[in-house]
Structures are given as C-alpha cells and as structure tokens.
Amino acid sequence: MDKKITVKSTLLFLVILFLTTYAYGFFILFPQWKEIGSIGALNLGPVMLLPALAVVVTKLITREGLWDKSLNPSFVKGRRIYYLLSWFLPFLLCLLGAVLYFIFNRSVFSYDLEYYMGVLKKQGTVTDAAIIRKSLLSSMISNIIFAPVLNVVTCFSEEWGFRGFLLSGFKKLMGLPLAVILSGFIWGLWYLPLTVMGHNYGVLYKGYPLTGVLAMCIFCIFTGICFSFVRVRTGSIWPAVIAHGSLNAFASIGIYFTRDGGNPFIGPSVTGLIGGLPIIILSLAVFVKMLKDPGEREIIANEKEKSLPTDRKVEIREAQRKMPENKEKP
Length: 330
Prior knowledge:
Blueprint: H1 2-36, H2 45-62, H3 80-104, H4 114-122, H5 129-150, H6 152-174, H7 176-190, H8 192-196, H9 210-234, H10 238-250, H11 277-292, H12 297-306, H13 310-322
C-alpha cells in the first residue's frame, strides 16, 4: 500500500511540475522571447519557484504534511564537512574546468577579456580591461562568500523538488542508483522550455533544439549525482542547496576570458565537455561510492536513537562507554 501511495504522489508531483512549467514557459515566456530575442530579458524567477510549489501542492492534496526529514539541516559532527565541500568545491571545479579548456584551446584565451569587452561596448559601456579584471576578481571573492546564501531561494526550490521529494520517492520505488540517474534526467527535461529559448546553449548550434535539450539532460544527470551524494550522506537537502548556489555563481566564469565566448558544448562553461570534465569525474567517483555505501545507515541509527526516551539514550551511551576493549594478552 505504501508503494502505491508513493507512486501516486510522485506522479502527481511530476504532472503538476511539468504542466505549470511548460505552460508558463511556452505560453507566457516563449511569445516574449520571440519578440525580444533574448532570454536574458525574460522573467525566469517564477519558473525556478515551481518545483517547490509542486511539492507543496502535492503534499496538500495527498495530506502528507508539508514538513519532511530532508528539510532538517542535519548540521552535526561528521556531516559538517559536506557543507564545507558544497560551499567551496563548486568554485574550484568551475575554475579547474575553465583552466583545462584554455590548456586545450590556448588561442581563444584573452587576458584582455575581448569577448566581454565587446559585450560591454554593444551595451554602450566603455571602460578599461584592467578595471574590469579588478571588478571580476572582487565579484569572485564576494560570490565565494555570499553566492550560496544569495541564491538560496531559487536553489532551495529546485533541490526540494528534485533531490528532496522526487529522489526520495524514486528511491523507494527503484533503489538509490536508478533514482539518482532518473531524477537528474527529469531535472534536465524540466528545463526544456528554457533550453529551447537559449538557456545555457544559445540557439545557433546544429540540431537545435534537440541537441541542447539532450546536452542539458546529460549535464543535469552528472551535477545531480553530486547534489544527490551530499543530500543522501547528510539526510538533508541543504548541502545540495548550497552546492547548487555556488555552482550557479561560477558556472560561466571562464567565458569572461575568451575571445569568442567559448562553446557551450565544449567549454569553458561547466555545461561543456571539457569545462565540465572535473564535475563529470567527481560525479562518477561519488556515484561509485554511493553504490558501495550510501551512507544512510548512520542517519537511520541516529533517527532511531532520537525517538527513544532520554533515560534510555543515556543508558545506551553509558553501556557503550563501559564496554571493555577486546585486547589479547601478550
């Protein structure tokens, strides 16, 4: 019976999510995009909030209760390292991906920020490259510190939807490995309306828009593995929210230092094969680690202990402390 409830609630979530997203994307944003010709001028904020809205509506309909275990910060000893990694590692991965891209494509590197300076010139802004470099450095330092917090609202919505509700439901139905892959693929498919309008990949590429949609799904599978890893290891979506916010801030960091804006399918942005290579390698490593040990046993044990009366917890801990060590006599 529990499995049937999970199937119904998961399907309901997906129907609500895709109906609202595709309706807003194709009937409201798409006509504006056709007229303006730039996705950057569109109001994408409501789209990013729809995963959380879909979770709330689903929970209200199924009467599950809005609060779930994935919303607990779980900021305890042994799990804090995942918060630190989620905060700083995405920046390092994006930077390393950009460096790798420029190693293989040295001719497109521009210390004078030729591509970005050209964009500014078209906007009517005339300034010196040295000033822009200082501004970029200052912005990078600021983003390292504040980006995960500043991006928390939109990233929380996506992570609660895909790594919170959807991953949990899929895990009950098909096990963790397949749940991680499928939830990542659906996450990428959810972006389809925005991808059609040029999000991440533009529109001037062979096979538009199918190539871009496929590339986005693959990108979301790999990044989703990393986000799922910290979510499962902590039992909380908050490390994934932090990692998502940090990644969003630095995903395109290398584009500023190109002559031509780079290639979204290759790099230096993390959406490209070379620019995203560090994330791909990391995701494969943590996926193998999840297969060997999801890291959920300790979380389950801690939850069981929390449910015990206080005097029973003390009794268990005292017994564990007094257990004699099993030493062999010489």
